[in-house]
């Protein structure tokens, strides 16, 4: 009787794709969970939790992302410079004007592993404010989320 063996992904055997996601009108949390799933590689049959087998994701129109409920006024982002009294609080509205790419990257990073593996995964996420991006030479597949 032949037994099936579990196959684990190796760094050499992973084939990475490039996906294009348009964030226009998408809800932030729902989109971030789908992006984290693709960056981890959980959509592939060869997924291994100890290996980075995810794909690259290019997000355009980051400034057009939306949130539900009262989060536009209530959601805050905290930063600290490390100096006494060096804390800043920004709400979602002002963060959307200043750094729309940071909104999406923070949401996705919170859903990835907090380790060296997670840091490698978040580097495969490319976020741009408008329609233009420098990854047009790669074979981008449009992904509907």
- Would you list the SSEs in sequence order as H and E? EHEHEEHHHEE
Which strand order spans the largest sheet, edge to edge or round the barrel?
Answer: 5-2-1-6
The CATH class of the domain at 15-65 and 101-142, by name, is Alpha Beta
Helix content: 25-40%
- Structural class comes to alpha/beta
CATH topology of the domain at 15-65 and 101-142: Ribosomal Protein L13p, Chain: A
Question: Whole-Å distance between the termini?
Answer: 43 Å
Number of helical stretches of at least 4 residues: 5
* The named CATH superfamily of the domain at 15-65 and 101-142: Ribosomal protein L13
What profile does the largest beta sheet have? 4 strands, parallel
**Architecture per CATH nomenclature, i.e. the level-2 architecture of the domain at 15-65 and 101-142:** Alpha-Beta Complex
Hey, roughly how much beta strand do the residues contain?
A: 15-25%
The shape, in one word, is globular
Question: What's the count of strands?
Answer: 6
> Mean pLDDT, nearest integer?
94
Q: Which stretches are low in confidence, meaning pLDDT under 50 for 5 or more residues running?
A: none
Report Rg. 18 Å
